[in-house]
Design goal:
Layout: H1 3-14, H2 24-40, H3 45-60, H4 70-85, E1 102-107, H5 114-127, E2 132-137, H6 144-155, E3 159-160, H7 171-185, E4 189-194, H8 202-215, E5 219-225, H9 230-242, E6 247-251, H10 260-269, E7 273-277, E8 285-287, H11 290-297, H12 303-313, H13 316-328, H14 335-346, H15 351-356, H16 364-370, H17 374-385, H18 389-393, H19 400-410, H20 414-435, H21 472-483, H22 513-520
Parallel strand pairs: 1-4, 1-5, 2-3, 2-4, 5-6, 6-7
Antiparallel strand pairs: 7-8
Length: 521
């Protein structure tokens, strides 16, 4: 959604590289480009004016670190101001402190994704240890009740739907009765899905107002489609004036719109963005973190979200065991282990989405990530699954006939099998090298991660000749070291500072004769 804005800002910051200091002209040019980038992203004009004014004021005010170059200085200021207009800090749900259930009311226009988001919110709360219930108070839209029941079943969250809907029933009474249902069945969170309209009208506002008065929610969340642009801001303002909202939930953040609503809505209505939905799966939903979103917009990735998703998707014990096999370098890590890790990685979502959270994925890297074909991963899985357990554990037994059989079983060519095996073996060799402390193969200066250095191809095995150092002091120290016997293992750390069997301490330490002569002169 923020691709256009991200690219424009990246081009703007690139023009500052190589400059030792920022002049007033540089600041004016940069802020002008930032203004154009924000307006092209459909950010509200008042927000753009305020944002650019603050950036220019801070830049002219020399609020800059001397340790940073001009590009880094501007990025730092823009990042902090982006976080500010996105809400400043993460806003979480205010849960009820007493024994009563926490009530969350969802409001918004029809088509904004309220019903789907109710299921996502229920699934998210269930993972947090709560016991939520979904309330079908949208009795106007056809099949809205049935849709919520299906979503609730997928999310593993119960649904309270006493009325059939399709224009039948009183939504206010349904919402009121849901509190008794929650009290009776010990649900601690009640999520009320209300009806929407194709536009803001008096009837919808009145119904939403009556439901809010009946259940007295702890949180009234306005669900807004992030793809509808500035109209989302106007709709949010109308709901704030007519019903009163506590926070905003952005849906469809994975769309291809320009994303101006997300950057405008929090500042215009003065309410925080609390949640964001960025996919069709129930798990594509989480708290909205302004700092992480600003980091994504500036192309700096979102490692914290990536780590959180990995912790949910990966089995820690299995991953640790696979890593130990790989680093031992004894050929224990096979294609079965690789397949298990690949499946866990795909649980986190599309690979393009995962790689997009990594820092530095801009420019050509970004294009490569976007063009990543998930079918290639399916082909890898098909090849591995066409192998026998013995072949997955030891690829060295794969002769020509075996590879032909695997290719036929996976529906691919023999060359595809050869490529997978070759790449797997090379990757395993590289990880073996890293585990041994040799560094990255073929990269000078990368040897030494606590282990032995890499031997070049032309280097012969054998003892190295001890070179003669030209400095007299060093040459004397070399001769003294050559005459010193090899150290033996010690049982007591104190014996490292005494002569064997003498029991004497460091006071009796004597310099070698050659070095003593140098100091006596």
């Amino acid at each position: 959604m923020f691709d256009t804005l991200q690219n424009r800002l990246a081009d703007t910051f690139k023009s500052l590289r190589g400059k030792g200091r920022l002049t007033d002209a540089d600041i004016d040019d940069t802020t002008r480009e930032i203004r154009i980038a924000l307006l092209e992203a459909d950010v509200a004009l008042p927000v753009v004016k305020e944002f650019v004014a603050k950036v220019k004021e801070r830049a002219h005010g020399l609020e800059l670190s001397k340790a940073l170059n001009p590009s880094q200085q501007i990025i730092k200021i823009v990042n902090e101001e982006l976080i500010d207009i996105l809400g400043g800090k993460t806003r979480e749900i205010r849960f009820s402190k007493g024994t009563d259930a926490t009530v969350i009311m969802l409001a918004g226009l029809q088509g904004a994704g309220k019903t789907t988001l109710a299921g996502k919110l229920g699934h998210w709360l269930r993972e947090q240890g709560h016991s939520p219930v979904l309330v079908a108070a949208d009795l106007q839209r056809p099949n809205a009740v049935q849709q919520l029941q299906v979503i609730g079943q997928r999310a593993g969250v119960p649904v309270y739907a006493p009325q059939p809907g399709n224009g039948v029933g009183d939504p206010v009474q349904v919402a009121r009765d849901s509190l008794d249902e929650a009290r009776h069945k010990l649900y601690d969170v009640v999520i009320v899905d209300t009806a929407g309209r194709l536009g803001v009208d008096e009837e919808m506002m009145t119904q939403a107002h009556d439901i809010k008065a009946a259940v007295n929610p702890n949180e009234t969340l306005f669900v807004v489609d992030a793809m509808i642009g500035q109209d989302a801001v106007n709709t949010a303002k109308a709901f704030e004036e007519g019903v009163g909202i506590d926070g905003v939930v952005l849906s469809k953040l994975d769309g291809d719109a320009r994303g101006g609503a997300a950057l405008s809505i929090a500042r215009v209505i003065g309410k925080p963005i609390m949640f964001a939905s960025n996919g069709e799966q129930l798990t594509d939903f989480d708290l909205f973190h302004p700092d992480r979103m600003a980091s994504r917009i500036l192309g700096m990735g979102d490692m914290l979200t990536l780590i959180e998703q990995a912790e949910k998707a990966f089995d820690a014990e299995q991953s640790r065991a696979s890593a130990e096999k790989l680093l031992r370098g004894k050929g224990e890590f096979g294609l079965q282990d690789f397949l298990a890790q690949l499946k866990q990685l795909r649980k986190m979502g599309p690979l393009s989405k995962i790689f997009g959270m990594l820092p530095g994925m801009g420019g050509q890297m970004k294009d490569a990530v976007e063009n990543l074909d998930e079918r290639e991963v399916d082909h890898l899985e098909a090849i591995i699954l066409s192998m026998t357990p013995a072949e997955r554990d030891d690829v060295s037994i794969l002769n020509g006939s075996r590879r032909a059989r695997i290719a036929a079983g996976s529906g691919l060519e023999v060359r595809d099998v050869n490529q997978l095996v070759t790449r797997f073996v090379e990757a395993r060799k590289m990880m073996k090298q890293l585990g041994a402390g040799g560094g990255m193969p073929g990269m000078p200066g990368m040897g030494g991660m606590g282990g032995r250095p890499v031997r070049s191809k032309n280097q012969k095995k054998g003892k190295k000749k001890r070179g003669k150092n030209g400095a007299p002091l060093r040459r004397g120290a070399q001769r003294a070291a050559a005459q010193t016997p090899a150290p033996q293992p010690v049982d007591d750390i104190s014996s490292m500072f005494t002569k064997p069997g003498s029991g004497q301490g460091a006071d009796s330490f004597e310099l070698p004769p050659e070095m003593r002569k140098m100091f006596d002169k």
